[in-house]
Amino acid sequence: MTKHATPLLDQLESGPWPSFVSDIKQEAASRAENPKGLDYQIPVDCPDDLLGVLELSYTEKETHWKHGGIVGVFGYGGGVIGRYCDQPEKFPGVAHFHTVRVAQPSGKYYNTKFLRDLCDIWDLRGSGITNMHGSTGDIVLLGTQTPQLEEVFYELTHNMNVDLGGSGSNLRTPEACLGQSRCEYACYNTQDMCYQLTMDYQDELHRPAFPYKFKFKFDGCPNGCVSAMARSDFAVVGTWKDDIKIDQEKVKAYAGGAIKPNAGAHSGRDWGRFDLQKEVVDRCPSHCMKWDGAKLSIKTADCVRCMHCINTMPQALRIGDERGASILVGAKAPVVDGAQMGSLLVPFVRCEHPYDEVKEVIEKIWDWWMEEGKNRERVGETMKRLSFQKLLEVTDTPASACHVKEPRSNPYIFFKEEEVPGGWSRDLAAYRNRHQR
Amino acid sequence: MADDKDVVVEFLNSKAGTKSKFYFNDFTALFPDKGPRDVKKVLTKLVNEEILEFWSSGSTTMYGLKGAGKQSHAEGES
Amino acid sequence: MAFISSGYNPAKPMENRITDIGPHKYDAYFPSVIKKNFGKWLYHEILEPGVLVHVAEGGDKVYTVRVGGTRTMSITHIREMCDIADKHCNGYLRFTTRNNVEFMVTDEAAMKALRDDLNSRKFSGGSYKFPVGGTGAGISNMVHTQGWVHCHTPATDASGPVKCVMDAIFDDFKSMRMPAPVRIALACCINMCGAVHCSDIGLVGIHRKPPMIDHQWADQLCEIPLAVAACPTAAVRPSKVEFNGEKVSSIAIKQDRCMYCGNCYTMCPALPISDSEGDGIAIMIGGKVSNRISMPKFSKVVVGYIPNEPPRWPTLIKTVKHIVEVYAANAEKYERIGDWVERIGWESFFKLTGLTFTHHLIDDFRDPAYYTWRQSTQFKF
């Protein structure tokens, strides 16, 4: 028997998709039963009260949470989000219900010991409810009280050797796709770059000194499975410079129907016989391919590496060997000046441990943004305010045509004084010798 | 370093009547000759000495004197 | 309850303190086939919805069974996943960026046993615990935010509407009949702590009323300068107002400048923004992140407002399902929703879907708005 009647939430238990309501109920039941005989450090019925306050929101169509300014553990400026319920008498179990962000391994592979250890900490010291994972990539432990924060942190660091993630105006927990661990498209070791940079920038992650949040994300190829280009201030997206490797026999096998195209991704509908010309060559955005019925050729100089042909015929086509990444800067969600996609800054960078070339770019951007960025301004907005040229200048990146979709359509060019012969100090007397007033 | 810390604390005390929490940029303005990374070192030291503390909106973070301000950290928590 | 100390000494916070240790190294938890073939994968194939095989240069294979997860999950549920991983996968598993969970094995028979085990488990309420699917040209799991479960500025719930959408498109989570992958995401307010602005279908909670001002409490609960500084559009200013015959320090809001972000409420609990009549959901479509064929693009608003209808959000669900079906029936193979709409034109999109085009859908927010108006005589009647 549950503590609160939840007739509205109960309607979210039916239907095939996993029901979070059923799941929270099973946690409530487990805590009530307490099979491990724990001395729960926060109210035993907090999952019941979580359902109770949610049912109230379902009835009233308004949230019942308030923000709290609590930030983390001693010395850290992030990693914990403070939450208070605005009906604490009705729902004392969730009156104080803060979240703890825990750093996830890049690529999110786990063994069951790690997860069980984490569950044990959260069983004793928290609500038993988590997010696997939060939007940025952290493990989120959802709901505990202030006195438990240091205890949870102590056990995480001392017993599990794992740290908190980021929140606030700092480097947020970086995230990578699974990369070379299980993907043939990965152009660099995304997980390693993510790990190394996370370790190198621990201070930036835990002690906020930026104008606003800053995110790194690492995608192994232009397919973009972790949405680096759309969601991170600093996106590293794998790419290559040389020829796509072609196995002509396998191409013929695809053309002849011997291998399922698209790795089987379209097999839920009869799309007819695979048509290599129509589905691959004609769909190529830069028209760099030819198929004569026996041989597929690609003009590498015209290829924009969109991945379509490789995705469609993964057994026949492979990414090139001269691999690295492109760096795109300034993506963000819409608030406040509208959404931004990352803009290409570095067309190609080598991605070799310890990633000094990449770090050099990051640190130049940080130095500039920390100096020039306004409070609560993402670096993408600083770029818009101060110009892309300024970003090129501070990162010592030479301008090139690949930086733009098209050149400017106005002639209002801000020349620098040193770019104009003779500078801006002019001889008025000499001018007057040539011209009357 | 000791002098730098005093500059920060004096600044915060001078504002105590109106505001208790400040963005990082407000402190860099106090040290025109220092880069942001050096200013951060001063603030980190003050946090570790329990003189300053962080306050966060979740998306942004501010610094203030420990315990100052109307929005207390723990609402009635023991 | 007796307080159980971890060993932490509050009197001396720096004593034995461990900091800045970061996450565990990514390769600490690789299954052996992953460790052995790192960087040596040759190709992959989706054997059936939710089941992939990756083949390495040396011929090793890894079978992956992908299941949908709810972002909000209990430790009881995680422990059950651990039991499954211990039973089938030598104790390893991984999570994806879309809240899916992947279990890996190295032979086909083991894959089938694993898959059937996962598909067989149900919650007491009847829903699947671990539905297998979410691959290829189907509809994968939704990414979403906290909503009424834990956020202070949401305009809608997150887990609830997500459950309802996923129930409605469940067959497409478990099949691959779409012209291209369809990615749906939900953010419970415009701040988008989980960004949805590049999704095939993005659902965004929106407020439609500026915050109320609790003059009685503003000066006691809040530092007014902080609330002022929090406003991204400079709509909030300090103000002296008459309250119960007394002049009190409070706040004034220029209502026509407010973009309903709730940032001032974050700083000041005397400025509540939630409102049962004002709040609801907007639908955005046609965004993508992948560079495949066409460049990444933003999602565009096609429905300006749908009221919150808990617990099952019927209008929202009907609309999303309808958009998916019109897309599935009309797009060409490989066209994402955004590619399809760009080919047929937005006039045709509204005609085909029957969605009503209203003035709310015309951009009027700052400079970029102009570039979305039509500077041409080319259009469709």
What does this protein look like?
- The complex is a heterotrimer of chains A (437), B (78) and C (381).
- Chain A is of the alpha+beta class.
- Chain A contains 15 helices and 15 strands.
- Chain A has helices at 7-10, 20-33, 46-60, 112-125, 146-159, 190-200, 202-206, 228-231, 248-255, 276-281, 308-312, 356-372, 379-386, 388-394, 428-434, and strands at 65-68, 80-85, 98-102, 109-111, 129-132, 139-144, 175-176, 216-219, 234-240, 245-246, 289-291, 296-298, 317-318, 323-329, 343-349.
- In chain A, the strands form four sheets. A five-stranded antiparallel beta sheet of chain A has the order 1-2-3-6-5. A five-stranded mixed beta sheet of chain A has the order 7-8-9-14-15.
- Chain A starts with 6 loop residues before the first helix and ends with a helix.
- In chain A, 58% of the residues are buried.
- The mean pLDDT of chain A is 96.
- By secondary structure, chain B is α+β, with helices and mostly antiparallel strands.
- Chain B contains three helices and two strands, in the order H-H-H-E-E.
- In chain B, a hairpin with a 4-residue loop joins strand 1 (52-56) and strand 2 (61-65).
- The radius of gyration of chain B is 13 Å and the shape is globular.
- The model of chain B has no long low-confidence stretch (mean pLDDT 87).
- Helices cover 26% and strands 20% of the residues of chain C.
- A five-stranded antiparallel beta sheet of chain C has the order 1-2-3-6-5, with helices on one face.
- In chain C, strand 1 and strand 2 (51-56) form a beta hairpin.
- Chain C is an alpha+beta fold.
- The longest helix of chain C is centred in the C-terminal third of the chain and has 17 residues, at 314-330.
- Chain C is globular, with a radius of gyration of 25 Å.
- Chains A and C meet through helix 1, helix 2, helix 3, strand 1 and strand 4 of A and strand 1, strand 3, strand 4, helix 2 and strand 5 of C.
- Strand 5 (129-132) of chain A pairs antiparallel with strand 4 (72-74) of chain C.
